[in-house]
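PROTOCOL LOG
Step 1. Enter all chains and additional molecules of the complex.
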Amino acid sequence: MQPPDDPEQRLVRLLALKRYETPPPGFFGQLPVRILVNLRAGSVVVDVPWWTRVLRVLVHEPMIGLSYAALGLGAVLFGISVLETAIDVQNPPIGLTQGLFPAASPELVLADPQGPTPGMIYRVAEPTPAMWLQSSLNPLGQSSAATPVFRFETIEFTPAGTTSAR
Amino acid sequence: MALPILASSPPTETAPQAEPEDTLLVLRSQGGDLAAFDQLIRRHQERVYATVYHMTANHEDAADLTQEAFIKAYNALPGFKGDSGFFTWLYRIAVNRTLNFLKQRRNRMIHLSLNDIDFNAEHDPDLVALTSEKTPRRDLNLTELQERLNTALLKLSESHRMVVVLHDIQGVPHEEIARIMDCNTGTVRSRLFYARQQLQGLLSDYLK
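Step 2. Run joint prediction.
Step 3. Record the structure below.
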């Protein structure tokens, strides 16, 4: 038990002074009325779902809405371009898919397997997926590094139908 | 004649008479009965106001925050499941709103707007002793003492001040404060200890 003159006890008694601080007369009679008037008027901020608040902001601040719309559109366009690139890498352009331009193999392939003619010049390419990716990211094709490299070689045909490069 | 705000018994969830009535009024209020909510306001407004006032030391801010707390409580009533008492739940709303307000006010200059002291204070033996010839500042009147006291309280951090206000001024038990402030009882006791030590240093003139 603490003695009566203990500083802590004196402090607690001193703090009791604050219990005598009272608001202006009539305050507690008016406060409920003010609260109920506000509740009835609905002029107060109520707990609403977040999407409702976002909608309100967009309606009241059209510029913010437009900015977000532009941002969203940009994000969608970027997403589409990335998706297209991914599709290009997985399914390279026609030459690669039809076996005209083997992606990873240096083996020579006939451009027209149906009608080979001895002594004819055939286009042969060795593009890699990385080169195609570079090519599609640089549609203008101004950089030489971004353009797939094609070699032109003369091919001779043997009667057995095999090919060989000179 | 206005009685001191907290002359009534401290709030406890186990108050045998108040709780059933609160529960009933809450149920009616949840159904949109504003008259029932009016009764809840009138029952709890003094303690809620007092807590906010002692935290802010500004009557206008306290009036606005009390009003906001009740309005927020009314709008959140559909989500009130009755896990804690209505008073604890309401207090928590008021305390959180006040703490948020004080964080926003931290960078602004604090303007004291103190309420008048009820004249019953002049007959309080403890306060008479504090302003009597036994104290080193016997020329000090109650209003000056009140100002010193509020200034000292404002020097505490918000969480420490809240514990002092709830316990030493409002008379709320430690366990109830822990529920209101969403912390454990040990934290409440620890905060109270450090807050009192700090206040003793700030008000040493009056505690000798």
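Step 4. Note key features.
The longest strand of chain B covers residues 116-117.
Strands of chain B lie at 116-117.
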